[in-house]
Amino acid sequence: MKNSVIILVLWLISPGLLTAQAGFQLIDKKATPETRMAATRLKQLSNGHILFGHQHATEYGHGWSGDAGRSDVKSVTGSHPAVIGMDLMGLSGLPDVQVQKNFDGLVTHITDTYNRGGITTLSWHFSNPASAGGFYWKDSVSAASVKLIIPGGSHHDQYKEILQRIGRLAHAVKGKDGSLAPLIFRPYHEFDGDWFWWGRSHCTTEDFKALWKFTVGYLRDSLQVHNFIYAFSPDNIFLSEAVYLERYPGDEWVDMVGTDNYGDFGRDGKYNLADGLKKLRIVSDYARKHNKLAAFTETGLESIPNTTWWTDILLKTLKSQGLELSYVLVWRNDENSPTHYYAPFPGQVSAPDFIRFYNDPFTLFEEDLRRSMQLYKAR
User: Fold this and answer.
1) At what angle do helices 366-377 and 4-11 cross, to 10 degrees?
2) Contact 343, 54 (CB under 8 A)
3) What is the per-residue burial (b if ≥16 Cβ within 10 Å, else e) of 133-167?
4) What are the catalytic residues?
5) Which residues form the active site (predicted)?
6) Residue 152 Cα distances to 68, 146, 162, 198, 218, angstroms
7) Residue 80, marked binder
8) Could you give phi then psi for residue 360, rounded to 5 degrees?
9) How far apart are alpha carbons 68 and 29 in whole angstroms?
10) Band of residue 15 on the pLDDT scale cut at 50, 70, 90
C-alpha cells in the first residue's frame, strides 16, 4: 500500500479548492461535471505528483490477452496504472461486424476503468480513409488525406461518419452511477514527424489546423460530446516553444499540451536527458502560462534492459524543478512479441526498480486515486 500521507493529501482536495485554480477551464463550456472535475484534479495533482499510465494495460500484456482484472503493472505492484491508454484505430477501415466488436470492447474497458477510479486516454492510429497503407505513410500507396477530409474535401462526409461513431462511443461509456466517463482524446499525435499520413510533410500547417478545429468543433458542437479533454501531442522534434507551437490550433481548441518522446530516453541505447528535460519544460511552462493541462503523453524504453531506468532516468527527470505534468504514459506490452514491451511484468529485470518507482510518494497509481475518492465520499 502506498504512503497513507498521499491518500490524506488527495482526500483533502475538495471540489471547492480545485475549482479555485485561477483561470483554469476546459474549452467545452458544456463539459460534464465529472469531466470538469477530472480535468481540475489533474491540474491540481500535477503540482507535486504525477499519474502513471500504460497503453492497453488491461486489454492484454506480455504473454496474455483478455484476462479479466489483469494488467502487467498490477501483477508487479498490486495496482493498475492510474491512466490507461486505449486506441480508436478499430472503429474504421474494417468490416462492420469487427468495428462493432471493437466498439463494444472499448465501452467495456473504459467503463471498467472509470468504475474503478482510473482515467482513460484515447489515441487514434487512424487508418487512412482515402487510400491503402493503414495509419503509416507508405510511399506510392498512401494518399495525403488531410486535405481530403477537411471541409470541402472529397472525403469530408466519410470523415464525419467516422466521427459520428466516435461520438456514439463517447455517449455510451456510462459508469455504474450513470455518469459519462471523462476521456482524454489525443488525435493526430506525433504530427511533426513523417511516419503517419497526417505528418508534417503530408499536409500544410493551415490544413492541419483546419482538421483539428473541425474535429473538435464537430464532436463538441454538432455531436454534443461533452466528456472529452482534448490533448495536443507532437513528437520530440522541437527545442523551442516557437517550433512546438508551429501547428498549434490555438488555446480555444486545446485542453492539454503534451509530447511523445522515446528518442531522448534510451531508444537505441541513446540518452539525451538534457534535451528531454528541456522539451518537457517547454510543455509544462506553456501549460502554466496559458492555464492548460500538461502531460508526458508517450515514452518508454523497449524491453527495459536498464535495470534502474524507472528511478534513475524517468523519475529523476519527472521530479526536476519546475515541471508540472499531470501524467506520464509508457507504451504497450505486446501479447506475442518477446521483446516489445514497455512496462515490467513479474520476473522482468527492471521490476524491482519499478516497485521503487511505484512506492515513491511522487507517483500515483489507480489504487491511490480510488482510495482517495472513497475517503472523500465518506466525509
Assistant:
1) 50
2) yes
3) bbbebeeeebbbbbbbbbeebebeeebbebbeebb
4) 190, 298
5) 190 (proton donor), 298 (nucleophile)
6) 45, 11, 16, 17, 15
7) no
8) -65, 135
9) 36
10) very low
Q: What is the pLDDT of residues 126-176, one digit of tens each?
A: 999 999 999 999 999 999 999 999 999 999 999 999 999 999 999 999 999
| Residue 262 assigned ligand-binding role | yes
- Spatial distance between the Cα atoms of 213 and 232, rounded to a whole number of angstroms: 12
Residue 136 labeled ligand binder: no
What nine digits make up the cell of 37?
Answer: 472535475
pLDDT digits (tens, 9 = 90+) for 334-362: 999 999 999 999 999 999 999 999 999 99
- Give the CATH number of domain 4-377; options: 3.65.10.10, 3.90.76.10, 3.20.20.80, 3.40.190.150: 3.20.20.80
Please report, as a single letter, which amino acid is at residue 276. G
In whole angstroms, what is the distance from residue 220 CA to residue 299 CA?
A: 29
Q: Give residue 185's identity as a one-letter amino acid code.
A: F
DSSP string, 15-71: HHHHHTSTT---S-TT--HHHHHHHHHHHHHTTT-EEEEEETTTTEETTEE--TT--
Q: What contacts 102, CB < 8 A, 6 or more positions away?
A: 90, 91, 94
